């Protein structure tokens, strides 16, 4: 009986640790992505140039604001 209780406790602790680890990792990744967006203005500028568009600062600011707004909207839905 004593061994069965220990096996149950170990399995329960492993499950709880996996669930807690998942949520902690998810929250830390969301914070990291929010603070360090994957696309910077320089990357956006080079993409627009490679597509044949002449990037103006106003257009870059609009696109960055749009991406930031989209990221905030998608995080609120979750």
Automatic annotation (TrEMBL):
Transmembrane helix as a keyword of this entry, yes or no, is: yes
Subcellular location as annotated: Cell membrane; Membrane
Q: What is its main location?
A: membrane
An example of a Gene Ontology cellular component annotation for this protein is: plasma membrane
Under the heading Pfam families, the entry gives: UPF0154 (PF03672)
Lineage: superkingdom: Bacteria
The record ties this protein, via HAMAP family, to: UPF0154
- Topology term for the membrane: Single-pass membrane protein
Q: Which organism is it from?
A: Weissella bombi
Please give the family membership noted in the entry: Belongs to the UPF0154 family.
Chain segments annotated as transmembrane:
6-25
| Protein name, UniProt field | UPF0154 protein GA0061074_101323
Q: Which keywords does this Swiss-Prot/TrEMBL entry list?
A: Cell membrane, Membrane, Transmembrane, Transmembrane helix
């Amino acid at each position: 009986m004593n061994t069965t209780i220990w096996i149950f406790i170990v399995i329960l602790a492993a499950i709880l640790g996996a669930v807690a680890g998942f949520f902690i990792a998810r929250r830390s990744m969301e914070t990291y992505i929010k603070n360090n967006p994957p696309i910077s203005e320089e990357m956006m500028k080079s993409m627009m140039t490679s597509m044949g568009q002449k990037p103006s600062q106003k257009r870059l600011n609009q696109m960055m604001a749009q991406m930031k707004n989209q990221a905030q909207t998608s995080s609120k839905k979750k």
